[in-house]
Structures are given as C-alpha cells and as structure tokens.
Design goal:
Structural class: mainly alpha
Number of helices: 10
Shape: elongated
Order of helices and strands: EEEHHHHHHHHHHEE
Mean pLDDT: 93
Low-confidence stretches: none
Helix content: 40-55%
Largest sheet: 3 strands, antiparallel
Length: 250
C-alpha cells in the first residue's frame, strides 16, 4: 500500500495510489519537470506514510478526485410524510395498539391524509398547511367537525408526535397552535317506554333471533359494542349479573 509518482502519456505527473484494496490514478496538472517532480514526490511520501498508518484521508488530498463521489457522505433523502408513515404504521400493530386503532390509522391515512401529504416533507407540515387541510376535509369532503378532528388531532398528530419524540425528526408540534371550537353536546332523545315496547314486539314477531340482543340493550343500558363483546364468563346467572369489562366494534 503506497503512493507512487508516474508520468502519463501527455507528459503530466500523476499519483498512482493503492490503499485498502483500492487503486486510483490522480492527475496533478503539473508538467514533468525536475522542480515539479520533486514537489510531487514529497507529497507522495507523505501520503504513503498516512496510508501505512491507516490515516489516509482521500478527500483531504483529492476533494475532486476520480473516486471523490465514493467517499463523500451520501445525502439522505428528505423524510416525507408518506415514507415515514409506512415505517411508523409497522410499529402500530397489536399488542402495541388495539386492532381497531390500527385499522383506524390505516383507513384515515389512506383515505384522507396521504392524498394531501404523501410527498410533503415532515418538516414542512406547518400550521397553515394543516388549516388548509381542515378546510378541505370540512368543505370539500363534507366531514363533520368531530370526524375532521379525529383524523387530524388524533390520527395524524399521533404520527407526527412520534416523529418528534421517538425519531427526533422534527422539533416542534405543528398541531399545538390549531384552535378547535368546543363541540356542542346534542340533547339526548331516548325512546319512550311505548316506543321501546313497540320495537321489542316487532323484533319478537318479525326477527326473534335478535330479540334477546335488543331486550338486553334496552333493559341494561349497555352499548351495542359492549353487548357484542360479552362472553359466558361475564354472566352470573345465580346473581343475575353481567360484568361489562370490554367492548368490540369491529
């Protein structure tokens, strides 16, 4: 492993290097004169010593050399929303998250978020862009404010939060400055006792398979997702009790 001085076919001095199983020819742009040869040989001696001590830095000697591209640090492609999402969603699977939450993440990204942000760099997800996205969801997609907030402030923000806190790809949370109006709770409109009895009678006569299900919902106040999740281990017939410990909405 060394550096030697050669003369090319045009009469110019050149370095012939061999280090780390790599061979390279590097021109000097200097004619082969006694003065130039002495100067170039002195450089070759220094490079040979560095090569021997394994301290040779190719780019220091030849920043525009024939192999410079092989040694320059490769520029990383900017991390786009689409690229990071495909890495991030692989972490969001059961048992880390609920199966239903994974499904919501995938559905909302593919349907709403990626069509607008697929090629946008993570660092360019800004409050003005988010304001425009909210307007798009509300006005062009016709979504309710509640659905819009679920997509943006829950799903999209969860990914951006991980990009900031886990992967250290961005410094600020662009969602924190967004203002959301308070949701106005709707006035409850429960069935009357007469309506309840009519509904149960209709099911008992026309579709008895579902009658026990409806009967249970009406007389316990259970949500449908809670009733669907019940197992025999949740039922105590002696004490006439049902334990509600889970829900199932898929």
């Amino acid at each position: 492993m060394a550096c030697k001085v050669k003369v090319n076919q045009h009469g110019f001095l050149a370095f012939h290097l061999f280090w780390n199983r790599t061979r390279s020819w590097e021109g000097t742009g200097l004619r082969d004169t006694p003065e130039n040869r002495e100067f170039v040989k002195a450089q070759a001696v220094i490079m040979s010593r560095e090569i021997k001590k394994r301290k040779f830095n190719y780019l220091k000697w030849f920043p525009e050399g024939n192999k410079a591209d092989d040694y320059r640090p490769k520029k990383e492609e900017p991390m786009t929303v689409g690229k990071f999402y495909r890495e991030w969603i692989e972490r969001k699977k059961p048992p880390v998250v609920r199966k239903g939450l994974e499904r919501d993440y995938r559905e909302q990204f593919n349907r709403y978020i990626l069509p607008k942000f697929e090629t946008i760099n993570l660092s360019e997800v800004s409050p003005p862009r988010l304001e425009d996205f909210r307007a798009h969801l509300l006005q062009e997609r016709g979504l309710s404010l509640k659905s819009c907030r679920n997509i943006m402030d829950a799903t999209f923000r969860a990914m951006v939060r991980d990009a900031r806190r886990v992967d250290y790809l961005i410094e600020k949370d662009p969602f924190e400055v967004l203002q959301w109006p308070r949701a106005k709770p709707q006035k409850p409109d429960p069935f009357t006792e007469e309506e309840r009895d009519k509904i149960l009678t209709q099911f008992k006569v026309k579709n008895p398979f579902y009658y026990p299900f409806l009967f249970t919902l009406f007389w316990t106040g259970m949500r449908p997702s809670e009733a669907i999740a019940l197992r025999w281990g949740d039922v105590d017939l002696k004490r006439e009790r049902v334990s509600i410990t889970k829900s199932r909405y898929l």
